[in-house]
Every structure is written in C-alpha cells, then in structure tokens.
Amino acid sequence: MRKLLFAPIYFFMLQPANAQEIREFMDLQSHMTVHIPYGFFGKGLTYFSNDDPPKSSYKHTFTNVNHANFLENNQGARIIINGALSKEWVTSKKKARRVIIEQIDYVNDFISNHSDKFALAKTPQEVRDLVANTNKTIVIHSIEGGRRLINSQEDANFWASQGIAFITLVHLLDDENGASAITPGLMTGLINAKGGFRKEKNRRLTEHGKQAIQYLANAGIMTDISHMSELTRKDALDYMFEHNIPPISTHDGFQPIQNSPRGISAEDIIRIYQHNGFVSLPLSGGALKPHKSFPVYQKMLDSLSRLDCYCEGSIDDYKFTYQVVKQFIENNAALIAKDSTVVFAELNDSQKVKYSIGFQTDFNGWLNHNRPRYGKDGCYELAADREYDEIELKGLAHPGLLNAHWNLLIREGVDLEPIKRSSEKFLQLWQYFLDHRRVEN
Ligand SMILES: [Zn+2]
Ligand SMILES: [Zn+2]
C-alpha cells in the first residue's frame, strides 16, 4: 500500500525539469531603433533584398546590422530584448519620454506588420506561450539609460504598462541617478567629460537614483546595474540587497579579467547571485578585452597565446571570460546557496537555473564585434588544407551569425547550458518582480 502511494510522487520528483521551463538563446540587449535618437544611424528592422545583401564586416560601429532578415528564424537569438536608447544629453522629461515611446511604437508596429515571423511579449507568461506554440522571434522591451525617465511612481508604472522588463539605469553620462563608469580608452571619457572631472569618491548613486530603483521595483521592472561607476554600483547593490530587489547586470565584465570600472568584482558576483540576481556578459571582443588582469588569469592568457589558442579581439575574449566566470560561479555554488552541502554538479537542471549566465550582443550599440581569428583581420594565416566557416573568416559581422557563433563554441567543447538556462532565469526573475509589485490603485 505504502509503495503504491509513493510511486506517483517519486515519479514526479524524477522529472528532469519543470516541463514549462525554457532553454533558449536570449539576447539580453540589442538596439533596433538607434535611428530614432540618432538620425544618422541606419534604420533597424528593415529587410534587404536577398539578391543584394549589405556588405558585412565586424567593423560596423556606425552601420546598422539589425536587418530583419537576420533576426527572423534566428536560433542563436530566439528571444531578443530591444533596448530603446535614451538621448544622452536630453534635459526635458517630456522629450526623454517621447524618444523612448517612439522607439517602442516603431518595434511594435514592425511586429504587427510581420506577425508571421515576430511576436511581442509583455509578460514572462507570454514568452513561455510563444516559445511553446510558435517559431517566431520573440521581442521584449527594455530601456538603456534612465536619464529623465523615472521621476515618480507614475513614471515607473507607465513604463511597466509598456511592457518594459528592465531599465539600465545609468548609461554613458553622469546624471540625476548616478555616475557612469569611465573605461580605458577615449570614448567614455570624452562623452562624459563632466564626470571625468569629478572626484571618484563623489560619483555615487543619488537619492533620486535610489528612488528610481524603488519606483521601478514597485512597478515590477528590474534594474540593470551595467555601466555604473564603481561607487554608484556599490551603492545600488547595497540599496537593492537591503530592500530585497534582485539586481541584474546585462553587460559588465569580470574584474579579475577586465580590471576596469566596468568589471564587477568576484565578491559582488557572489552577492548578486546570493540575492537571486544574475549576470550576463557582452559578446563583443572589445567589451571583454582583458585589461590589467589578475596574475592568475594573465598567466592563463599568456599560455593560451603561446599555443595559438588565444586571439585578442576575437571570439576568444568571450570564450575565455565566459568559461572563467562559469567556473567561478559553479565552484562557489555552496557559498551562493548559503548551504555547505550544495555541489553544483549534483544539482538537477532546474536547480542549476539559479547559476545561469546571460549574454548581451549590443548590436547597433556603436561598437564593433568579434574580429575573425583567421585571415587578414585575424591572428592566424589561413591554412590551405582546411575549410573555414563564415564566422571564422568574418568574425561576428551581424546577428545572423549568432547561431554559428554558438555552434563554433560547442564544437570546441564549451558548455553553453548556463547561457540557455539564463532565458529561464530571466523569466523567473521578471515574474518575481511582477509578483512583488507594490502599486496602489
Ligand atoms: Zn551599454
Ligand atoms: Zn547598448
């Protein structure tokens, strides 16, 4: 009798993962509408004729690569979060809002005109239903740059009503919310000249910034801490941990390898996961270029280079950083779970979702992507007796090559499961925010 009673329960426990869970490649941020805040940029979400494809190169800083052709039926980015971009120097609240709404409307209009290939999701459940029942590319809205956009609870509620899943609070300029990381190289220093003149110790999250994080959480919107200066990030994490608001970072680096203000420390990575958040890595070689790496990683990079297994600026920067971050998180699973008996390898696939790592392409984000490893733009000469894939010869020239990018890593033995699990992690977290809304009617 007892045996019979237990049988169904046991069967249920043996199920490998919740049947509802998803495992898709989900791009945590791409920019399809840069032409709206910056008119000189080519229009995203347009189709080219197959007889006349655009020239493609990984050097595409000022060129639109988010052609609709590349985004439909794309297994390498089944779900894409479009980051509407704020205007960096906007001063009027009205104008700031208008620029974002125009981008949201542009994407929504495109999707309704191409509903055979694309679908919009405004809730985690809509994403799940679309994954289960269609082959469409699923688009979610986010905003990069909170400048002038979150001034009251009503503002945050408004963005939630538009289906915004998260806002990257700080972008390239210091503003009313906090300070922006000034990274090695000229670009961010030039754009944020004012920030560069301020004393680092004064470059904090402001009261307005704290309030914005709270308004967003109340409305069910996540805060992305990417781009924050070190002390602004510290303040944001402290505030979020104190108020049970899980943080996400969509495209910062790992300080032991990218030892610049955009690198998150090992300790903070642990704390982010302890508080139910997660991190995601940018895909472009430039963003993950090693900088003053800790000796242990510099040694690894040097020995890989000697073996011709590391080509700076290529997919190798991503491959190296991803694998280090993955190992770091998995080795610290017990610390993250605050349970000394936890061993990552012994967890089931559902339990592993907590330790996911996302990715962010930032296509059309004013940057180049990975250069190729081989040929004139690469590190190594072409061998006559070997065939090469397009991704190996061109690098990551456009989003249509994402699936090839993942397949190349798989062929080289890289475990991408944490990346696929991150789609589930993201939906669970988004749902958590929606379930914990504190919006009074
Ligand atoms: Zn960014
Ligand atoms: Zn961006």
Automatic annotation (TrEMBL):
Gene3D superfamilies per record: Metal-dependent hydrolases
Q: By its UniProt entry, which InterPro entries does this protein fall under? A: Metal_Hydrolase, Pept_M19
Question: Does the record bear Cytoplasm in its keywords?
Answer: no
Which of UniProt's keywords are assigned here? Signal
Please name one Pfam family that this protein belongs to: Peptidase_M19
Q: Which range is the signal sequence, renumbered to this chain?
A: 1-19
State a single Gene Ontology molecular function. Answer: metallodipeptidase activity
This chain's protein is named Peptidase M19 renal dipeptidase
What species is given as this protein's source?
Answer: Haliscomenobacter hydrossis (strain ATCC 27775 / DSM 1100 / LMG 10767 / O)
